[in-house]
Each structure stands twice: as structure tokens, then as C-alpha cells.
Amino acid sequence: MAGHSKWHNIKIKKEKTDKARAKVFGKYSREIIVAAREGGGNPDANFRLRSAIDRAKEQGMPADNIQRAIARGAGGGAGENFEEILYEAYAPGGVALLIRAATDNRNRTAADVRSVFNKQGGNLAESGAVSWMFERKGVLEVPKAKIDEDELMLAALEAGAEDVRTEGDVYQVTTAPSDLDKVRQALVAGGIVPTAAELTWLPKNTVEVGGRDAERVLKLMEALDDLDDVQQLYANFDIPEEILQQVG
Fold first, then answer.
1. Is the N or the C terminus of the chain less surrounded, counting Cβ atoms within 10 Å?
2. Which CATH class is domain 134-203?
3. Tens digit of pLDDT for each residue in 25-62?
4. Cα pseudo-dihedral 51, 54, 55, 56, rounded to 10
5. Is residue 71 classed as helix, strand or coil in its secondary structure?
6. Where are the domains of the chain?
7. What is the pLDDT of residues 176-187, one digit of tens each?
8. Residue 188 phi/psi, 5° resolution?
9. Which residue from 157, 216, 215 is spatially nearest to 190, judged by alpha carbons?
10. Measured between alpha carbons, how far is 235 from 196 in angstroms, rounded to an integer?
């Protein structure tokens, strides 16, 4: 899970210190709009929407902005124009990369993504060339300080989770996509409250990169993440922590 978790942590740190909150809020607005359009505007009945709202609140997005995004998605109008696209690509060092975008202009988004690769290295791939290296999974995060690993393992497996792993200062509970909300509810009912719960793409295997390639991979991902239409990035890189501190 190195590519997923390490980039996720870098991104969260960047968002928490970024003064240009409008860009961050814009991405969460799109996520909320798409989630509300697909599953309705009630977060109690739409797990994807609730998850998007929780992440937006964590970043300080105002409640009025959240409600407007829900209304746009659930009520149609501008929300209907957004579509989701999953690009597949290779980053420097042979790293596989999935790029999830939400856009109201497919041609513009494709041109922007292609431009980043032209400047930063790597290249877009055909559909299916990269996605087979990843698995669609649910992931919940529980702070290590809140619970013993054996206790969490027992509760998670009884709730239907597939595995519990250690990543930095959190435990990551993985589930089948359809079981994510069921496992989350069971953990909460048992007094274990995850700090994050989302559907993601996890790499089946990782590629270790270092030196110049590690720097190029992180610069590419940051440039892609800066695009307004890009919502999430998933990669199979494994950058050793000491190198990550130097170049990240």
C-alpha cells in the first residue's frame, strides 16, 4: 500500500498548509456534486457522499459550500455536466499510475493531463494497460493511539474486513468495496471510530524507486494533483522513508 498511503499523507499535509483553499474546496465540491448526483443528496443513505462531506469538513470547507454542492448534485443543473474519467499512465521509474478526474469538458481535461506528462515525464497508457495492477478496495484508517492492534484486528475481521495493516501512525483496515460501509458501521458501534473511510485503488505489487526517479515521480504527481479536474491519484511506487523526506 506504499504508493497509496505515502502519497495520501503527502497530499493531506499539503492541503492542511495550503493557503489557496479555494482550489482544495473546488475539488471537494466536485466530489460532493458527483456523489450526490449518483446516490442522492442524503448522506445517511449515500456513503460516498458522507465520506466526501467528512473529508471536506476535515479541511475546513464551510457548511454553506457543502450544502450548495449537495444541492447542485442532487438537484441536477450544473451537477449533471460532470463525468468521471479514469486515466491510466506510467510515471518515471516504471511506476504505474491511475488518475481519477471529474470534468465538465473531457477534451480540456485530457489536454491538461497530457501537458503535465509532456513536461514532467512519463506517458499516458491505453485503457487496461495499468488498471490490472490495482485492486478496488475499501480502506478505513484508525489511529494507533486509540486501540491495540489485536483488538482492532479481531473487531475488524468479525465485521467482515479482509485485513488490518500498519501504515505510519495509523492502522489501515481493508475491505471489499461493497463491505466498506458495513465494516465502518460495525466498528463505530463497537466504539472504534475511523478517522477516514474511502474507496480506493490499491496496488497489487509495488515498484521501489529512489534518487532522481523518486523526485520526478513526486513532481509529476504534484503537478497532476494541482489540476482542477483531477480528484485522486493512485500509484504503485515504494519510496523509502529517508528518500521521501529528502525529496518529498
1. C
2. alpha beta
3. 888 888 899 889 888 888 888 888 888 898 888 888 88
4. 120
5. helix
6. 134-203
7. 999 999 999 999
8. -60, -40
9. 157
10. 19
